[in-house]
Write a structure and sequence with these properties.
65% of the residues lie in helices and 1% in strands. By secondary structure, it is mostly helical. α6 packs antiparallel against α7.
């Protein structure tokens, strides 16, 4: 037995450990320390950006619940399917076409519109650590593209053919959203830059001008989705029974405010990835500051809309109050990187008030938007983008920055509307006269769940 133990120790090297050669540790130098620190910083930034992307991905569940709760029970499966399709088909379209149009080498220098290629051709063009960072950037942009697409589903809810909506979802993520994104955000990837990034409004000799600023996408993401949805709502027309011949507006109430409220809370939570995640960095702690601005604007938006509905309707209305919080979140998305807390509260409160009157306005002109998406994401997205020119601590009018930033913001807002609304209107007209866009009246009355999907969200047990 002793011999066996001796043999084991000898063969493993434990008995003669002192006599075995020990490999010297690598030499630590100042350059190696700097390299290790730089690598650690990059990897930390990548982890944070991926976590933020996962939060934004979860926002898809929030959109699904908000839209389903605000619409009738007979169309719940249809709403869920559209939100599910936005993420899956939208990701494919963005990979195949959209990412390169948005971030590829520019067809027209300093204008936008990247040259088409598969996304991996751009992602793999930089080897080593940069390549890993490119994939981090890609997943973050995928979930942003899906957000723009899914806003459309709410504006056209309860009367749109599923396959037609699916076709448009592919078009907006492949072409419409990426091309405007290339105007405003192409420089984020560093292959080219868009003309809105190079406006230089008010520049003179030795003085730098103002460029369009939209930190996380009040216009680039939210208003683009809303203006596309506005075009769709116009082409598909209002739901049966919404607007009476005598001018009265018949409210088609949502079936589940609990679901809608949960959806808003999920979106609110996801927004902590949407805005702070747009830093793509944990350096200097700016993501924490942006999280505070995001939260305070949402709180102010909810307060604003609740107070206004209380005054107008003598009761605090749940649907518009929920939309007020979303309006505040949308509005703060553009200026969140460089405003004060008081500025964020003002921006959010104005958005909460604005969304109520905007919803009433669109009802007045007979544009049927079942979830108020045009008002929340379009109108309040435009307000939030414009507010950069007022509340930005460096260039805002209220802080002595003059009007040049306001002008730059106005150009960006107008460009987004003209590009998105025009192209979306054209696409929807083509779809209307080819594959058709609206379900039959019988199908609309029965509900889209059964006839479009052969299923119900709430089947009655027998």
């Amino acid at each position: 037995m002793v011999k066996l133990i001796f043999l084991f120790l000898a063969t493993t090297g434990l008995l003669f450990a002192d006599e075995m050669p020990v490999e010297a540790p690598p030499e630590v130098t100042l350059d190696s320390l700097k390299s290790d620190i730089a690598t650690l910083r990059s990897e930390t930034d990548w982890v944070w950006t991926c976590i933020a992307a996962f939060l934004v991905f979860f926002m898809q569940a929030g959109f699904a619940f908000v839209e389903a709760g605000f619409t009738r029970a007979k169309n719940t499966v249809n709403i869920l399917m559209k939100n599910f399709a936005d993420m899956s088909f939208g990701a494919m379209a963005f990979w195949l076409v959209g990412f390169s149009l948005m971030f590829g080498e520019a067809v027209f220098k300093d204008f936008g519109l990247g040259q088409w290629s598969l996304a991996e051709n751009l992602l793999n063009s930089d080897k080593g650590e940069m390549e890993a960072g490119n994939y981090t950037f890609f997943i973050f942009q995928i979930v942003f593209a899906a957000t723009a697409a899914t806003i459309v589903s709410g504006t056209m809810a309860e009367r749109t053919k599923f396959h037609t909506y699916l076709l448009f979802s592919i078009v907006i993520t492949a072409v419409i959203y990426p091309i405007f994104g290339s105007f405003a955000w192409a420089g984020l990837f560093g292959k080219s830059s868009g003309f809105l990034e190079n406006l230089q409004i008010g520049s003179s000799e030795g003085v730098e001008g103002r460029n369009f600023l939209d930190f996380a996408g009040s216009t680039v993401v939210h208003s683009v989705g809303a203006w596309a949805g506005l075009a769709g709502a116009l082409i598909v027309g209002p739901r049966v029974g919404k607007f009476q011949e005598d001018g009265r507006i018949y409210p088609l109430l949502g079936h589940n405010m609990s679901m809608a409220a949960l959806g808003v809370f999920i979106l609110w939570f996801g927004w902590f990835g949407f805005n702070p995640g747009s830093t793509t960095s944990v350096g200097e702690g700016s993501f924490a500051r942006i999280a505070v601005m995001t939260h305070m604007a949402a709180c102010a938006g909810a307060m604003g809309s609740m107070i206004v509905t209380w005054i107008l309707f003598k009761k605090p209305e749940i649907g518009l109050s929920l939309n007020g919080a979303l309006a505040g979140l949308v509005a703060i998305t553009a200026p969140c990187d460089n405003v004060s807390i008081s500025g964020a509260v003002a921006i959010g409160f104005v958005a909460g008030v604005l969304v109520v009157f905007s919803v009433l306005f669109f009802d007045k002109i007979k544009i049927d938007d079942p979830v108020g998406a045009i008002s929340v994401h379009g109108v309040c997205g435009a307000w939030g983008t414009l507010s950069v020119g007022l509340f930005n601590l460096d260039t805002g009018y209220l802080y002595g920055g003059g009007t040049y930033q306001l002008i730059a913001q106005g150009i960006g807002i107008a460009t987004a509307f003209v590009w998105t609304f025009t192209t979306s209107l054209l696409v929807f007209l083509i779809l209307k006269y080819t594959v058709g866009i609206r379900v039959s009246m019988d199908e609309e009355i029965i509900g889209l769940d059964i006839l479009e999907h052969g299923n119900e969200a709430y089947p009655v047990s027998k």
